[in-house]
Amino acid sequence: MSAEYPDAALPDSASPGSAVLSVRDLTVTFPSDAGPVQAVRGVSYDLMPGEVLGIVGESGSGKSVSSMAVMGLLPKTARTTGSVRFRGRELLGLPEKEMTAVRGKRIAMIFQDPMTSLNPVYKIGWQLSEAVLAHHDVSKEVARKRSLELLEIVGIPSPDKRIDQYPHEFSGGMRQRVVIAIAMANDPDVIIADEPTTALDVTVQAQVLEALRAAQHETGAAMVLITHDLGVVAGQADRVLVMYAGKPVEIGPIDGIYYQPRMPYTVGLLGSLPRLDQRTQEKLTPIPGTPPSVVNLPPGCPFAPRCPLKSDVCLRTEPSLLPVLGAEHQAACHHSDLLAYEGAMDVFSTDPNAAPGQGPQGEQHLGEEPGQSPDRAPRQEPGQAPGQEPGQETGGTTGQEPGRPPGQHPGQDRRDPGQDPQSGAAQ
Ligand SMILES: Nc1ncnc2c1ncn2[C@@H]1O[C@H](COP(=O)(O)OP(=O)(O)OP(=O)(O)O)[C@@H](O)[C@H]1O
Ligand code: SF4
Ligand SMILES: [Mg+2]
Hints:
The chain folds into two domains: about 1-240, P-loop containing nucleotide triphosphate hydrolases (Rossmann fold, 3-Layer(aba) Sandwich); about 295-420, no CATH class. About 25% of the residues lie in helices and about 15% in strands. The chain has eleven helices and 13 strands. The protein has an eight-stranded mixed sheet, sandwiched between helices. Bound molecules: adenosine-5'-triphosphate, iron/sulfur cluster and magnesium ion (MG). Adenosine-5'-triphosphate (ATP) binds near residues 63 and 75.
């Protein structure tokens, strides 16, 4: 890994604001025949002790690469810049021997495939006991007893029998729970879980998420939970960071992200979630189009080709992440103020009753420059659908959802963040 970063060998000291993990302006680029792959283009976040940060985005948005950079696990071809501080100590550029000591012990990583972490030739009990013995000066008997406890905490049935089995005798969900138990045994300060439930069916997902909650409760660790599904982080995270084309496009407390999203991509992700409101028969609304290639990105907002709210300025200038609802909630969108209107959740609606060509509150806001009055007449081509380029096929409509009670919050009828993302049951 080639890298450019400041003062790599800083002493261990308090991080800004006492964050356990501080990531600043992280960029990762891979060389390729087609040109540099800009996998991560400026990721910054602080993870506070005990906090759960959800990182959400579609495939290829840079979720894994940014986390692998934190762990120092990128291939040598990767060019990394920026800063990653664990308890104030710069990790980027740390010699491999020192980084190995940080990995597993201070920062544990849980991958989508549990067999990445488990050794197929050793019994589960042996692997757990090894982790316990690595961190505690106890006898083998005590380590085995603790291993049994850990298996119980993560919900493995009959742990006294299971402890003497091999990984292949466990189901995928149970293996993932064993990996979580091993992470607990290491007593880490930070757990990074990269799509830990993606390969599992919905019921098993809920069990693994429950095991993660137990691990976090037991260790008090802070956690980065990576997923492509906003529903998975709903009952789990304190804050959410939404990534698109290698960049954070919205970050904020979970309530703000779910109930007051200020970036159309976040709105689109929310629109793809199942709705709890049984009164409506409205179908899920996927975001039209696909994410861009991060090789030779054109100027402007990378989301513009898929965005019903795009205007000229979006095609010229990539928006910066700026505070939208207090300093804690930030979004990267020239038109984030338009999403404050009631009906903002419907920017991707395919509801045939939604009035095409009309924005929230029946007004047309498209094509305006930032700061332009929403009441000003739009610059729209005759016959052009909202957000549509001349000659481009429409991908969606805007309009206020008919039947939404006045005063109801955008997204209020969506998933409740306090509810189990799998079952919808209250926590
Ligand atoms: N070793 C590599 N060499 C070149 N490009 C890479 C490498 N690893 C990842 N990339 C590219 O970096 C970008 C970000 O990939 P990353 O794996 O972080 O996406 P992701 O958000 O984790 O997606 P997914 O949800 O599919 O896991 C993608 O365009 C990917 O093709
Ligand atoms: S309105 Fe413009 S800046 Fe905002 S997401 Fe759409 S294209 Fe990007
Ligand atoms: Mg990934």
